[in-house]
Each structure stands twice: as structure tokens, then as C-alpha cells.
């Protein structure tokens, strides 16, 4: 066995990942960041095009300290990352909304949420093995276990798909939990105050029109 | 009554709002754009800071053809919009995920979604009446009707809150609906295929610890 240095439990804060406000809501803890990323599959990817910002929703997957997004080789950010040297500066953000915080005052209304913001430079993945692993991770983020129950990409599909890698280096989590923080002088106001939790769930799976009737719903979908 | 020119039913496509791929998924229809925006309250706001992209989740509200976001006067994008002349170039994106599309092939896995992307320049709102209207719209996006059942912002709170306005001009919607699009040669594969719908809902409201017991849950929360 080769010895490796222990991985620090937290990411190092930088000027970009230290918030100007509500610093108590920020976290650089590696496990916290991973757990927020692993609970989702849709991120918002920001990049700069002709000097202006662009923000696009896209799927992602995590493998260790690497985040992957994919797209057609013809799509803008993936073309730009391929052309750019040394890579495409991006900001990738994942947000979960957990509850609506209703205070007595309009001013103190808020949202309970957990988010991760990653700053870095995205690079196109060229190694075929890494590309396959990344695509599996993206599919498995959407439905855990699904990559084992579908036909893997063939050579033609792989060459039509571009994958971007973004290393988890300059990264922070931010979250808000708990009830409203009303001003002392507002406590007697007659408005209902508290938190409305948000629930996410899945409806009944709808089979494709051309699905053979003997193909049963797999376990990983009944337990989703 | 003054006569006004009829508002066009669609936004004018531009180089930035015409997708490089899947153009059939794009729409510039005004009502489609409004309905996607009005169904949500959380957007991802992109801007450029020191040449690099930044993407932050934030609440928004719509009033006609104007979108508003708010924040502390000390927060970065709001400070930048205040300093910048003539405004802060932004990209504001709203995304709803409607279903997971599971194809027989990994390559054809997808997401049913609806999104709106707005490109433009954000300006700080200085008119007090517009600022109040914007803040009401943001609260009412989260919970319709809530702005009438909370204490409005006072002068001190208003001055601590900055509001950015982004006009709906360069805007497009994009959506995917329907089942998977498998390759003909994959139709005999044994994998389950179809769509898993996503459901969003609300849990039971949790009253604040200091809520007086005689304050009842308002109707607009029981019907949320």
C-alpha cells in the first residue's frame, strides 16, 4: 500500500468563497459539501461569453473530488472549454430549497436552503475511461443504480458527448435552517409565523408507449 | 383612455437566446415565459466579477415585464449594480424539473423540464414606490397573498434593502416533455423505460416557538 497524505476535512476559504454577509451560514466542511452535491442532480452552470454572464441548467455527477457535466460536443460551454486554453472559468451552483420562512415582518421573510458554489476552471475530459465513469456518475445522480440497468454509450455516442470536469477546490456550502427571526417589537403582531417545509417526491412512473408488458418496474424505482 | 400599441405576443430572438442545439425546445412566447417565471420564486443569478462568472441562488418576483431580485445593500451583486454605470450585466435563470426520463440507453437519458433564461442589464431601483412593489412581488412569489398579511418594511428596512430590476427583453423559454427517444435497435432491450414524474409539495406548517396559540393558520397556507 502506498501512503497518502490525509485529506483535509475542509476546503480552504478564499476571497471568492467567503461571503460578504451572513458568514455564519457558510461552511467549508468537505462532508457537508459532498452531501449537498450528492442529494441533487441539476446544477446551474455559469460561464462568461463575450464578456457577459451565461447561466444554464444542466445535469451533473460527482466522483470523489471531481464534478462532471456533459453535453453535446456542439453546445456552447463545451465547445468553449474545448477551445479555451487552459480551460473555461466557470461557477457551478447547486441549491436545495427546504422551507419557506414566514416572519411577521415582510423584511424577515426568508428561505431555508442548502447550496454549494464551486469556482474553478472546467476542462474537457479526453480519457475514455474517465469519460465513461463521469457519464455513469451523471446517470446515477439522477437515479441511483440506473447506469447498471441501461445500455452503455457506444463509440459513436461517446464521441458525440463532451464531458467537462471541474475539481472541487474553491468551494463553499451555505445554508439556513430554523424559524423566523422577528424583531422584538413585532412579536405581538397578529400574523401567523413559522416555517412551511417543502417536500419533494416522485409520482407513479409512466412506462414508455413501446415498453414490452413483461418488463417490470425495477426495485430501484419503487424505492426512489 | 390612452391608446397603447399592442404588446407583441413573443420576445424577439437574439444570437444569445437562439440555442445552438435542440431549437425545437426553445420558445419566445410571452405567456409561456411568464407562466414559467410565475410558478417559481428561486432563480440563479449570474454576473461577472473580476472577469470570472458567479452564480448565486436568490429569490425573485415579477411585475409585468420586469423581474426583481433583492438583497442587502452590502451584498456583492447589489453593490456592483449600484456602482456600475450603466448597470450590471446579468443572466437570470429559472428552472423547473418535471420528470426523469429513463431511456434504454444511457445516452438517451434526459430530464423533462421548463426553464427561462433572461439576459440583460440589472439596475438598482431607486424609486421608493417601485421598491415597495418589487418587495411585495418577491414575497408574493414565495406565498401568494402573504404581502398583505405581514408588516410592510419600514424606512430603516427599506434603506437596508437593495432591489435590482431586470427588464424582460432578451429572454427565452426552453422545455422538454414526453417520453424517452430510444434508438430503433434498442427497443428490444430488457430495461424498464419511461418517465418518473417529479412532485413538489408542502409539508405541515411549523409554527414559530413564539407564536401566540390563538393565531390560526391562514387560508392561503392551507391551500398552498
UniProtKB/TrEMBL annotation, chains A, B:
Region Disordered: start-end pairs: 1-29
Tell me the InterPro entries matching this sequence.
Pyridox_Oxase-rel, Split_barrel_FMN-bd
Concerning Pfam families, the annotation shows: Pyridox_ox_2
Signal peptide residue numbers: none
According to UniProt, the name of this protein is Pyridoxamine 5'-phosphate oxidase family protein
Q: Which organism is it from?
A: Streptomyces montanus
Amino acid at each position: 500500500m502506498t501512503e497518502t497524505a490525509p485529506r483535509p476535512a475542509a476546503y480552504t476559504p478564499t476571497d471568492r468563497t467567503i461571503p460578504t454577509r451572513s458568514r455564519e451560514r457558510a461552511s467549508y466542511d468537505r462532508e457537508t459539501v459532498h452531501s449537498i452535491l450528492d442529494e441533487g442532480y441539476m446544477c446551474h452552470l455559469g460561464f462568461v461569453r463575450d464578456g457577459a454572464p451565461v447561466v444554464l441548467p444542466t445535469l451533473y455527477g460527482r466522483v470523489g473530488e471531481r464534478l462532471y457535466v456533459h453535453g453535446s460536443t456542439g453546445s456552447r460551454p463545451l465547445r468553449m472549454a474545448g477551445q479555451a486554453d487552459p480551460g473555461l472559468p466557470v461557477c457551478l451552483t447547486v441549491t436545495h430549497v427546504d422551507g419557506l420562512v414566514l416572519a411577521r415582518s415582510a423584511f424577515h421573510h426568508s428561505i431555508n436552503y442548502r447550496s454549494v458554489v464551486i469556482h474553478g476552471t472546467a476542462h474537457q475530459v479526453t480519457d475514455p475511461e474517465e469519460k465513461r465513469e463521469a457519464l455513469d456518475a451523471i446517470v446515477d445522480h439522477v437515479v441511483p443504480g440506473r447506469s447498471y440497468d441501461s445500455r452503455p454509450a457506444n463509440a459513436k455516442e461517446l464521441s458525440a458527448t463532451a464531458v467537462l470536469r471541474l475539481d472541487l477546490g474553491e468551494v463553499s456550502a451555505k445554508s439556513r435552517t430554523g424559524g423566523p427571526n422577528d424583531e422584538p417589537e413585532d412579536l405581538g403582531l397578529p400574523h401567523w409565523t413559522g416555517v412551511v417545509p417543502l417536500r419533494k417526491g416522485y409520482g407513479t412512473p409512466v412506462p414508455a408507449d413501446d415498453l414490452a408488458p413483461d418488463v417490470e418496474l425495477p426495485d430501484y424505482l419503487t424505492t426512489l
